[in-house]
Amino acid sequence: MGAGYVGLPLAQVFAEAGIPVVLVETSPEKVARVERGESYIRDVQSSDLKRLVEAGSIEITSDYDALKEAEAILIALQTPLSAQREPDLSIVLGAVEDIAPRLQKGQLVVLESTTYPGTTRERLLPVLERSGLKAGEDFYLAFSPERVDPGREDWTTKNTPKIVGGITPACTERAVELYRRAIDTVHPVSSPEAAELTKLLENIFRSVNIALVNELAQLCDRMRIDVWEVVGAAATKPFGFMSFQPGPGLGGHCMPIDPFYLTWKAREYDFYTEFIELAGKVNENMPWWCLGKITRALNAEEKALKGSKVQIVGVAYKANIDDTRESPALKLIELLQEEGADVSYHDAFVAELPEHGLSSTELDPAGSDCVVIVTTHTGIDYDDLVERAPLVVDLRNATGHNGASNRKVWKL
Ligand SMILES: NC(=O)c1ccc[n+]([C@@H]2O[C@H](COP(=O)([O-])OP(=O)(O)OC[C@H]3O[C@@H](n4cnc5c(N)ncnc54)[C@H](O)[C@@H]3O)[C@@H](O)[C@H]2O)c1
Predict the structure, then answer these.
(1) pLDDT in tens, 366-389
(2) Which of 66, 131, 198, 370 is the most core-located residue (most Cβ within 10 A)?
Protein backbone atom coordinates (compact mmCIF):
# COMPACT_ATOMS: atom_id res chain seq x y z
CA MET A 1 0.00 0.00 0.00
CA GLY A 2 1.49 3.29 -1.16
CA ALA A 3 3.56 3.51 -4.34
CA GLY A 4 5.90 6.24 -3.09
CA TYR A 5 9.61 6.53 -2.29
CA VAL A 6 9.42 3.38 -0.16
CA GLY A 7 6.62 1.40 -1.81
CA LEU A 8 7.76 1.51 -5.43
CA PRO A 9 11.37 0.27 -4.86
CA LEU A 10 10.01 -2.39 -2.47
CA ALA A 11 7.58 -3.55 -5.16
CA GLN A 12 10.43 -3.81 -7.62
CA VAL A 13 12.56 -5.93 -5.24
CA PHE A 14 9.73 -8.41 -4.68
CA ALA A 15 8.76 -8.51 -8.36
CA GLU A 16 12.39 -9.12 -9.39
CA ALA A 17 12.45 -12.04 -6.91
CA GLY A 18 9.54 -13.60 -8.78
CA ILE A 19 6.84 -12.57 -6.31
CA PRO A 20 3.96 -10.79 -8.06
CA VAL A 21 3.05 -7.41 -6.53
CA VAL A 22 -0.15 -5.39 -6.59
CA LEU A 23 0.41 -1.77 -5.59
CA VAL A 24 -2.58 -0.12 -3.95
CA GLU A 25 -2.28 3.63 -4.47
CA THR A 26 -4.79 6.49 -4.09
CA SER A 27 -3.12 8.99 -6.44
CA PRO A 28 -4.70 8.61 -9.92
CA GLU A 29 -1.61 10.23 -11.45
CA LYS A 30 0.72 7.63 -9.93
CA VAL A 31 -1.61 4.81 -10.94
CA ALA A 32 -1.59 6.05 -14.55
CA ARG A 33 2.19 6.45 -14.60
CA VAL A 34 2.92 2.98 -13.19
CA GLU A 35 0.44 1.49 -15.68
CA ARG A 36 2.49 3.12 -18.46
CA GLY A 37 5.69 1.74 -16.88
CA GLU A 38 6.85 5.28 -16.17
CA SER A 39 8.79 5.69 -12.94
CA TYR A 40 8.66 8.90 -10.87
CA ILE A 41 11.17 7.61 -8.29
CA ARG A 42 14.81 7.97 -9.30
CA ASP A 43 15.84 4.69 -7.65
CA VAL A 44 13.50 2.75 -9.96
CA GLN A 45 14.40 2.79 -13.67
CA SER A 46 11.45 3.21 -16.04
CA SER A 47 12.88 0.43 -18.26
CA ASP A 48 12.76 -2.01 -15.30
CA LEU A 49 9.29 -0.88 -14.24
CA LYS A 50 7.94 -1.18 -17.79
CA ARG A 51 9.38 -4.71 -18.11
CA LEU A 52 7.84 -5.79 -14.79
CA VAL A 53 4.45 -4.18 -15.58
CA GLU A 54 4.33 -5.72 -19.06
CA ALA A 55 5.21 -9.14 -17.60
CA GLY A 56 2.34 -8.76 -15.12
CA SER A 57 4.79 -8.90 -12.17
CA ILE A 58 3.70 -5.44 -10.97
CA GLU A 59 0.10 -4.24 -11.13
CA ILE A 60 -1.34 -1.06 -9.65
CA THR A 61 -4.86 -0.23 -8.56
CA SER A 62 -6.77 2.12 -6.29
CA ASP A 63 -9.28 -0.61 -5.47
CA TYR A 64 -8.80 -1.83 -1.89
CA ASP A 65 -10.59 -5.09 -2.72
CA ALA A 66 -7.34 -6.18 -4.37
CA LEU A 67 -6.03 -6.63 -0.81
CA LYS A 68 -8.25 -9.68 -0.33
CA GLU A 69 -6.17 -11.65 -2.84
CA ALA A 70 -2.80 -10.87 -1.24
CA GLU A 71 -0.63 -13.26 0.73
CA ALA A 72 0.94 -10.27 2.49
CA ILE A 73 0.00 -6.59 2.84
CA LEU A 74 2.93 -4.20 3.33
CA ILE A 75 1.98 -0.68 4.43
CA ALA A 76 4.33 2.05 3.14
CA LEU A 77 2.29 5.18 3.79
CA GLN A 78 3.29 8.63 5.03
CA THR A 79 3.71 9.34 8.75
CA PRO A 80 4.01 13.14 8.98
CA LEU A 81 3.88 15.51 11.94
CA SER A 82 0.90 17.78 12.59
CA ALA A 83 1.28 21.56 12.59
CA GLN A 84 1.92 21.25 16.35
CA ARG A 85 4.68 18.71 15.62
CA GLU A 86 2.79 15.74 16.97
CA PRO A 87 2.62 12.34 15.21
CA ASP A 88 -0.08 12.27 12.56
CA LEU A 89 -1.00 8.63 11.98
CA SER A 90 -4.27 9.46 10.22
CA ILE A 91 -3.12 8.17 6.81
CA VAL A 92 -1.85 4.84 8.17
CA LEU A 93 -4.80 4.32 10.51
CA GLY A 94 -7.29 5.27 7.78
CA ALA A 95 -5.75 2.60 5.55
CA VAL A 96 -5.84 0.02 8.37
CA GLU A 97 -9.57 0.73 8.82
CA ASP A 98 -9.95 -0.16 5.14
CA ILE A 99 -7.83 -3.32 5.47
CA ALA A 100 -9.74 -4.70 8.50
CA PRO A 101 -13.00 -5.61 6.71
CA ARG A 102 -11.00 -7.21 3.89
CA LEU A 103 -8.55 -9.14 6.08
CA GLN A 104 -8.33 -12.84 5.18
CA LYS A 105 -7.30 -15.84 7.23
CA GLY A 106 -3.57 -16.54 6.87
CA GLN A 107 -2.66 -13.06 5.66
CA LEU A 108 0.44 -11.22 6.86
CA VAL A 109 0.25 -7.46 7.52
CA VAL A 110 3.49 -5.51 7.95
CA LEU A 111 3.83 -1.81 8.74
CA GLU A 112 6.91 -0.32 7.06
CA SER A 113 6.24 3.36 7.87
CA THR A 114 8.45 5.02 10.46
CA THR A 115 6.61 5.54 13.74
CA TYR A 116 6.88 5.48 17.54
CA PRO A 117 7.28 2.23 19.55
CA GLY A 118 3.85 0.82 20.30
CA THR A 119 2.11 1.83 17.07
CA THR A 120 1.76 -1.68 15.65
CA ARG A 121 0.49 -3.23 18.90
CA GLU A 122 -1.55 -0.34 20.30
CA ARG A 123 -3.00 1.18 17.14
CA LEU A 124 -3.00 -1.41 14.33
CA LEU A 125 -3.70 -4.64 16.23
CA PRO A 126 -7.07 -3.61 17.79
CA VAL A 127 -8.40 -2.32 14.45
CA LEU A 128 -7.34 -5.45 12.57
CA GLU A 129 -8.71 -7.78 15.27
CA ARG A 130 -12.12 -6.13 14.82
CA SER A 131 -12.30 -8.43 11.80
CA GLY A 132 -12.84 -11.27 14.27
CA LEU A 133 -9.45 -12.78 13.33
CA LYS A 134 -6.73 -13.18 15.98
CA ALA A 135 -3.12 -12.09 15.40
CA GLY A 136 -0.59 -14.91 15.59
CA GLU A 137 -3.29 -17.49 14.93
CA ASP A 138 -5.59 -16.38 12.12
CA PHE A 139 -3.45 -13.63 10.64
CA TYR A 140 0.06 -12.30 11.23
CA LEU A 141 1.15 -8.77 12.15
CA ALA A 142 4.66 -7.30 12.24
CA PHE A 143 6.67 -4.09 11.94
CA SER A 144 9.61 -3.85 9.57
CA PRO A 145 11.16 -0.42 9.05
CA GLU A 146 12.20 0.75 5.61
CA ARG A 147 15.81 1.98 5.65
CA VAL A 148 16.20 3.12 2.04
CA ASP A 149 18.48 6.09 1.41
CA PRO A 150 17.12 7.63 -1.81
CA GLY A 151 19.71 8.17 -4.51
CA ARG A 152 22.16 5.72 -2.96
CA GLU A 153 23.44 2.94 -5.22
CA ASP A 154 25.71 0.84 -2.98
CA TRP A 155 23.05 0.15 -0.32
CA THR A 156 19.60 -0.50 -1.72
CA THR A 157 16.30 -1.96 -0.53
CA LYS A 158 17.59 -5.40 -1.59
CA ASN A 159 20.98 -5.49 0.14
CA THR A 160 20.29 -3.36 3.23
CA PRO A 161 19.53 -5.77 6.11
CA LYS A 162 15.84 -5.79 7.04
CA ILE A 163 14.74 -5.62 10.68
CA VAL A 164 11.56 -7.55 11.51
CA GLY A 165 9.60 -7.71 14.78
CA GLY A 166 6.25 -9.51 15.04
CA ILE A 167 3.40 -9.30 17.57
CA THR A 168 3.99 -13.01 18.35
CA PRO A 169 6.87 -15.38 17.46
CA ALA A 170 4.68 -16.86 14.72
CA CYS A 171 4.15 -13.36 13.28
CA THR A 172 7.93 -12.72 13.24
CA GLU A 173 8.58 -16.09 11.63
CA ARG A 174 6.01 -15.46 8.92
CA ALA A 175 7.39 -11.97 8.14
CA VAL A 176 11.02 -13.18 8.12
CA GLU A 177 10.04 -15.95 5.72
CA LEU A 178 8.43 -13.42 3.35
CA TYR A 179 11.30 -10.92 3.31
CA ARG A 180 13.96 -13.66 2.94
CA ARG A 181 12.45 -14.48 -0.43
CA ALA A 182 13.42 -11.04 -1.77
CA ILE A 183 15.92 -9.33 0.57
CA ASP A 184 19.49 -10.53 1.14
CA THR A 185 19.63 -10.30 4.95
CA VAL A 186 16.78 -10.32 7.45
CA HIS A 187 17.41 -9.58 11.12
CA PRO A 188 14.55 -10.59 13.43
CA VAL A 189 14.05 -8.81 16.77
CA SER A 190 11.85 -9.82 19.70
CA SER A 191 8.94 -7.39 19.20
CA PRO A 192 7.47 -4.71 16.95
CA GLU A 193 8.45 -2.15 19.60
CA ALA A 194 12.15 -3.11 19.27
CA ALA A 195 11.88 -2.82 15.47
CA GLU A 196 10.07 0.53 15.69
CA LEU A 197 12.68 1.95 18.05
CA THR A 198 15.58 0.61 15.97
CA LYS A 199 14.54 2.77 13.04
CA LEU A 200 14.16 5.82 15.28
CA LEU A 201 17.57 5.26 16.89
CA GLU A 202 19.19 5.24 13.43
CA ASN A 203 17.64 8.58 12.49
CA ILE A 204 18.16 10.18 15.90
CA PHE A 205 21.84 9.15 15.79
CA ARG A 206 22.27 11.08 12.55
CA SER A 207 20.24 14.07 13.71
CA VAL A 208 22.22 14.44 16.95
CA ASN A 209 25.61 14.10 15.26
CA ILE A 210 24.69 16.58 12.53
CA ALA A 211 23.53 19.02 15.23
CA LEU A 212 26.88 18.60 16.98
CA VAL A 213 28.86 19.64 13.89
CA ASN A 214 26.35 22.40 13.11
CA GLU A 215 26.93 23.86 16.56
CA LEU A 216 30.67 23.51 16.08
CA ALA A 217 30.39 25.28 12.71
CA GLN A 218 28.86 28.30 14.48
CA LEU A 219 31.63 28.38 17.06
CA CYS A 220 34.25 27.96 14.32
CA ASP A 221 32.77 30.99 12.56
CA ARG A 222 33.47 33.11 15.63
CA MET A 223 36.90 31.60 16.18
CA ARG A 224 37.84 31.93 12.49
CA ILE A 225 38.57 28.22 12.20
CA ASP A 226 37.55 26.24 9.09
CA VAL A 227 35.09 23.63 10.45
CA TRP A 228 35.43 21.54 7.28
CA GLU A 229 39.18 21.30 7.75
CA VAL A 230 38.65 20.16 11.36
CA VAL A 231 36.00 17.55 10.47
CA GLY A 232 38.18 16.26 7.61
CA ALA A 233 41.22 16.02 9.88
CA ALA A 234 39.28 14.23 12.65
CA ALA A 235 38.02 11.77 10.04
CA THR A 236 41.58 10.53 9.50
CA LYS A 237 41.32 8.75 12.87
CA PRO A 238 40.71 5.12 11.94
CA PHE A 239 38.65 4.35 15.05
CA GLY A 240 36.32 6.06 17.53
CA PHE A 241 35.23 8.87 15.21
CA MET A 242 32.52 8.98 12.58
CA SER A 243 32.40 11.92 10.21
CA PHE A 244 29.27 14.06 9.88
CA GLN A 245 29.14 17.22 7.79
CA PRO A 246 27.64 20.52 8.87
CA GLY A 247 25.07 22.12 6.55
CA PRO A 248 22.05 24.40 6.19
CA GLY A 249 19.74 22.06 8.16
CA LEU A 250 18.01 18.71 7.89
CA GLY A 251 15.71 17.76 5.03
CA GLY A 252 13.67 14.90 3.66
CA HIS A 253 10.71 12.99 4.97
CA CYS A 254 12.65 11.27 7.76
CA MET A 255 15.24 13.14 9.76
CA PRO A 256 13.42 16.40 10.56
CA ILE A 257 10.30 14.43 11.55
CA ASP A 258 10.92 10.94 12.90
CA PRO A 259 12.83 11.83 16.11
CA PHE A 260 9.80 13.80 17.31
CA TYR A 261 7.66 10.68 17.15
CA LEU A 262 9.76 9.37 20.02
CA THR A 263 9.73 12.67 21.91
CA TRP A 264 5.94 12.60 21.84
CA LYS A 265 5.70 8.98 22.99
CA ALA A 266 8.31 9.48 25.74
CA ARG A 267 6.04 12.04 27.46
CA GLU A 268 3.61 9.23 28.21
CA TYR A 269 6.38 7.78 30.39
CA ASP A 270 7.21 11.14 32.11
CA PHE A 271 10.44 11.19 30.14
CA TYR A 272 12.06 14.05 28.23
CA THR A 273 14.25 13.15 25.25
CA GLU A 274 16.59 16.11 25.64
CA PHE A 275 19.18 15.10 23.04
CA ILE A 276 16.45 14.92 20.40
CA GLU A 277 15.01 18.31 21.36
CA LEU A 278 18.42 19.96 21.48
CA ALA A 279 19.43 18.49 18.11
CA GLY A 280 16.11 19.63 16.62
CA LYS A 281 16.66 23.14 17.98
CA VAL A 282 20.18 23.44 16.54
CA ASN A 283 19.30 21.91 13.16
CA GLU A 284 16.04 23.85 12.73
CA ASN A 285 17.84 27.11 13.44
CA MET A 286 20.41 26.57 10.66
CA PRO A 287 18.48 28.33 7.85
CA TRP A 288 18.23 31.46 10.05
CA TRP A 289 21.93 31.21 10.83
CA CYS A 290 22.73 30.84 7.11
CA LEU A 291 20.57 33.92 6.41
CA GLY A 292 22.78 35.83 8.84
CA LYS A 293 25.88 34.62 7.04
CA ILE A 294 24.53 35.72 3.63
CA THR A 295 23.63 39.13 5.10
CA ARG A 296 27.13 39.54 6.54
CA ALA A 297 28.76 38.48 3.26
CA LEU A 298 26.74 41.06 1.31
CA ASN A 299 27.43 43.67 3.98
CA ALA A 300 31.15 43.16 3.48
CA GLU A 301 30.57 44.11 -0.17
CA GLU A 302 28.63 47.18 1.00
CA LYS A 303 25.34 45.69 -0.23
CA ALA A 304 22.03 45.27 1.59
CA LEU A 305 20.20 41.96 1.39
CA LYS A 306 17.08 43.86 0.35
CA GLY A 307 17.10 44.19 -3.43
CA SER A 308 20.21 42.03 -3.90
CA LYS A 309 20.09 39.30 -6.53
CA VAL A 310 20.65 36.01 -4.70
CA GLN A 311 20.88 32.77 -6.67
CA ILE A 312 20.44 29.53 -4.72
CA VAL A 313 22.29 26.58 -6.23
CA GLY A 314 20.58 23.28 -5.39
CA VAL A 315 17.18 23.15 -3.66
CA ALA A 316 16.62 19.38 -3.23
CA TYR A 317 17.24 18.26 0.34
CA LYS A 318 20.35 16.37 -0.70
CA ALA A 319 22.60 15.85 -3.70
CA ASN A 320 21.51 14.09 -6.88
CA ILE A 321 17.85 13.60 -5.97
CA ASP A 322 14.72 15.58 -6.91
CA ASP A 323 13.03 15.46 -3.47
CA THR A 324 12.43 18.87 -1.85
CA ARG A 325 10.38 17.69 1.14
CA GLU A 326 11.42 19.65 4.25
CA SER A 327 14.46 20.90 2.32
CA PRO A 328 16.30 23.65 4.24
CA ALA A 329 16.70 25.44 0.89
CA LEU A 330 12.95 26.16 0.91
CA LYS A 331 13.12 27.77 4.35
CA LEU A 332 16.15 29.78 3.30
CA ILE A 333 14.36 31.01 0.15
CA GLU A 334 11.35 32.07 2.25
CA LEU A 335 13.58 33.95 4.69
CA LEU A 336 15.49 35.68 1.88
CA GLN A 337 12.23 36.65 0.17
CA GLU A 338 10.85 38.03 3.44
CA GLU A 339 13.91 40.25 3.71
CA GLY A 340 13.31 41.59 0.20
CA ALA A 341 16.08 39.75 -1.65
CA ASP A 342 15.54 39.07 -5.36
CA VAL A 343 15.81 35.26 -5.20
CA SER A 344 16.28 32.82 -8.07
CA TYR A 345 17.42 29.22 -8.01
CA HIS A 346 19.20 26.70 -10.18
CA ASP A 347 18.58 22.96 -9.77
CA ALA A 348 18.78 20.53 -12.68
CA PHE A 349 16.69 18.03 -10.68
CA VAL A 350 13.89 20.39 -9.57
CA ALA A 351 12.19 22.34 -12.39
CA GLU A 352 9.60 24.22 -10.30
CA LEU A 353 8.95 25.47 -6.79
CA PRO A 354 5.31 26.52 -7.28
CA GLU A 355 4.75 27.49 -3.63
CA HIS A 356 7.60 29.99 -3.89
CA GLY A 357 6.59 31.21 -7.35
CA LEU A 358 9.94 30.12 -8.78
CA SER A 359 11.23 27.95 -11.63
CA SER A 360 14.79 26.76 -12.04
CA THR A 361 16.85 29.27 -14.05
CA GLU A 362 20.21 28.99 -15.78
CA LEU A 363 23.21 29.07 -13.48
CA ASP A 364 24.11 32.75 -13.54
CA PRO A 365 27.01 33.53 -11.21
CA ALA A 366 28.00 36.72 -13.03
CA GLY A 367 24.44 38.10 -12.98
CA SER A 368 23.98 37.60 -9.21
CA ASP A 369 25.09 39.69 -6.27
CA CYS A 370 25.57 36.49 -4.28
CA VAL A 371 25.47 32.78 -5.16
CA VAL A 372 24.50 30.50 -2.28
CA ILE A 373 25.47 26.85 -2.64
CA VAL A 374 22.89 24.83 -0.71
CA THR A 375 22.89 21.37 -2.35
CA THR A 376 25.79 19.99 -4.34
CA HIS A 377 24.41 18.01 -7.26
CA THR A 378 27.12 16.60 -9.49
CA GLY A 379 27.62 18.27 -12.85
CA ILE A 380 28.39 21.78 -11.59
CA ASP A 381 31.85 23.25 -12.11
CA TYR A 382 32.38 24.99 -8.77
CA ASP A 383 35.79 26.40 -9.75
CA ASP A 384 34.14 28.12 -12.69
CA LEU A 385 31.24 29.29 -10.47
CA VAL A 386 33.69 30.89 -8.01
CA GLU A 387 35.60 32.44 -10.90
CA ARG A 388 32.50 34.12 -12.33
CA ALA A 389 30.51 35.05 -9.20
CA PRO A 390 31.13 38.33 -7.36
CA LEU A 391 30.33 36.63 -4.03
CA VAL A 392 29.72 33.01 -2.96
CA VAL A 393 28.26 31.65 0.28
CA ASP A 394 29.14 27.97 0.31
CA LEU A 395 27.05 26.02 2.84
CA ARG A 396 28.44 22.59 1.78
CA ASN A 397 32.16 23.13 1.25
CA ALA A 398 31.62 22.53 -2.46
CA THR A 399 34.37 25.02 -3.26
CA GLY A 400 36.81 23.15 -0.99
CA HIS A 401 40.27 24.60 -0.55
CA ASN A 402 39.66 27.10 -3.31
CA GLY A 403 37.06 28.63 -1.05
CA ALA A 404 39.33 28.66 1.99
CA SER A 405 41.87 30.82 0.23
CA ASN A 406 39.44 32.96 -1.73
CA ARG A 407 38.19 36.12 -0.01
CA LYS A 408 34.96 36.28 -1.99
CA VAL A 409 33.90 32.80 -0.78
CA TRP A 410 32.20 32.60 2.61
CA LYS A 411 31.96 29.04 3.86
CA LEU A 412 29.54 27.76 6.52
N1 LIG B 1 11.44 8.43 1.72
C2 LIG B 1 12.36 7.82 2.41
O3 LIG B 1 13.52 7.96 2.14
C4 LIG B 1 12.01 6.90 3.58
C5 LIG B 1 13.01 6.07 4.09
C6 LIG B 1 12.71 5.22 5.13
C7 LIG B 1 11.44 5.25 5.69
N8 LIG B 1 10.47 6.08 5.18
C9 LIG B 1 9.14 6.02 5.80
O10 LIG B 1 8.27 5.30 4.94
C11 LIG B 1 6.95 5.84 4.97
C12 LIG B 1 6.50 6.20 3.58
O13 LIG B 1 7.31 7.25 3.10
P14 LIG B 1 7.46 7.61 1.57
O15 LIG B 1 8.62 8.53 1.47
O16 LIG B 1 7.47 6.37 0.73
O17 LIG B 1 6.08 8.40 1.32
P18 LIG B 1 5.44 8.81 -0.09
O19 LIG B 1 4.60 10.00 0.14
O20 LIG B 1 6.50 8.88 -1.15
O21 LIG B 1 4.53 7.55 -0.45
C22 LIG B 1 3.29 7.26 0.12
C23 LIG B 1 2.31 6.92 -1.00
O24 LIG B 1 1.09 6.47 -0.43
C25 LIG B 1 0.00 6.99 -1.19
N26 LIG B 1 -1.18 6.94 -0.33
C27 LIG B 1 -1.59 7.84 0.60
N28 LIG B 1 -2.68 7.40 1.25
C29 LIG B 1 -2.97 6.19 0.73
C30 LIG B 1 -3.95 5.21 1.01
N31 LIG B 1 -4.87 5.41 1.97
N32 LIG B 1 -3.95 4.07 0.30
C33 LIG B 1 -3.02 3.85 -0.66
N34 LIG B 1 -2.06 4.74 -0.98
C35 LIG B 1 -2.03 5.89 -0.29
C36 LIG B 1 0.47 8.36 -1.60
O37 LIG B 1 -0.24 8.85 -2.72
C38 LIG B 1 1.96 8.10 -1.90
O39 LIG B 1 2.16 7.72 -3.24
C40 LIG B 1 7.03 7.00 5.95
O41 LIG B 1 6.66 6.56 7.23
C42 LIG B 1 8.49 7.37 5.96
O43 LIG B 1 8.87 7.99 7.16
C44 LIG B 1 10.74 6.90 4.13
Answers:
(1) 999 999 999 999 999 999 999 999
(2) 370
